[in-house]
Amino acid sequence: MFLWQYLSLLLLITVHVCKAQDCDEFTDLDLSHAIIGTSLKTRLLLYTRENATCGKLLSHTNLTANPKLNLSRPTTFVIHGYRPTGSPPAWLDKTVQLLLEREDLNLIVVDWNYGAANVNYFKAVENTHKAADNLTAFIELMRKEGVSLSSIHMIGVSLGAHISGFVGANLMGDIGRITALDPAGPQFTGTGPDERLDSKDAQFVDVLHTDIDSLGFREPLGHIDFYANGGTDQPGCPKTIFSGGSYFKCDHQRSVLLYLDSVNQTCTIKAFPCASYKDFLDGNCLSCERFGAAGCPVFGHDVIRWKDVLLKLRQTKSFFTTNGVSPFCMTNYRVEVVIWNEDVRWGYITVKLHGNDGEAVATIDHTAAKFQKFTETRLFAHFNKDIQLVKKVSLTFSTGNVFKPKYKLRILRVRLTHLEREERPLCRYDILLKENKEVTFRPILCEESNF
């Protein structure tokens, strides 16, 4: 009996070892490789729902070598960017998992770590063209086997975004979709469309910008370009160099985390088309009429639903704000204030919403608002969470002037309108706000006849 148990255990261990050996892993290098420099080697790792945690290395010349590659399914390529330390991307496993949970597809991770791992960034940039040529040849092989290029989606991160663009250009823009997550800026800024990602590289190109003042690309590149928090400093990311490496890469990498939240449908982020981030924050871009009944497009994986109208508009810049951690989505309200002070007041408003599901806060302080007697001041408030049933509202008025006398703001009416849900606005009348003193009240539903 003991011998049988021993043999069973040995067999089980052997099976697990063999199974592990059958899986192909993303190339794991270290800083020494990057210092020495690596020559390009492109590996294609296939994941499907049948092998969601076990990558299978694909042949570049024989598609039938791996029976798990089902060409009747759509195919998504995930392409990483510059790897200065040689380590695999921390987000890779989660990306594979979430994409396969959303859709039954061939998910191919493009592993060009040999070529991306190099302290010489310029060499990695040079390798993007070679990696794109390699990938183009593989997709051409797929097309010869009857695959429609429309069924191909490429998700490129940083340098990977431009690789996607080069592949798309090689294939005359016939690829179905390119999603670019904070496309790399250095060495690409100021170049022409042939030397970077461009909206003509696929039938639909959606782009997210999160680090336009450092590692990312500033200008629009796609049919729709999303600028999270204006595309610069992301909430929750370090503000000083003393935070180490995360200071340099946090804003850039936030693009992947935001996109994964959209794949996971953690929450929905509505983006507002606007010419500038300032106009967006000022609440000057809240109209979504150009998008018809569907309303403003949502950021991320599901923006493909707006493809037809976005193609007609040709190029759309859109903005949204986020929290510092997942769930990243914020809840947007329009806040309209009418005062009856005789003198003009300048200042900032903080709004709190209270309900059974907690408290949400929005501080509108990007610029001082002008409050003038009997004149409606419109503010755009971004709350850190959505309160389903608002029972109380708190308001705080401040001027930011420490040494000047404290002012009062006599509010004739305040109206709060939820911008994501179709529901009656909330109102309150005749409120006296003393500077830096929070006032809490129960709102009432606004009436159409109210001024």
Commentary on this structure:
This protein is of the alpha/beta class and 451 residues long. It folds into 2 domains: 19-320, Rossmann fold (3-Layer(aba) Sandwich); 331-445, Lipoxygenase-1. 24% of the residues lie in helices and 27% in strands. The chain contains 9 helices and 19 strands. A 10-stranded mixed β-sheet has the order 2-1-4-3-5-6-7-8-10-9, sandwiched between helices. Strand 3 (75-79), helix 3 and strand 4 form a beta-alpha-beta unit. The N and C termini lie far apart (88 Å). The model is unreliable at 1-20 (pLDDT under 50).
In short:
24% of the residues lie in helices and 27% in strands.
Share of residues in helices: 10-25%
The count of helical stretches stands at: 9
Structural classification: alpha/beta
Q: How many structural domains?
A: 2
Most strands sheet? 10 strands, mixed
Shape: elongated
Question: What is the CATH third-level topology name of the largest domain?
Answer: Rossmann fold
Unreliable segments of 5+ consecutive residues: 1-20
Task: Work out the number of β strands.
Answer: 19
Approximately how much beta-strand content do the residues carry? 25-35%
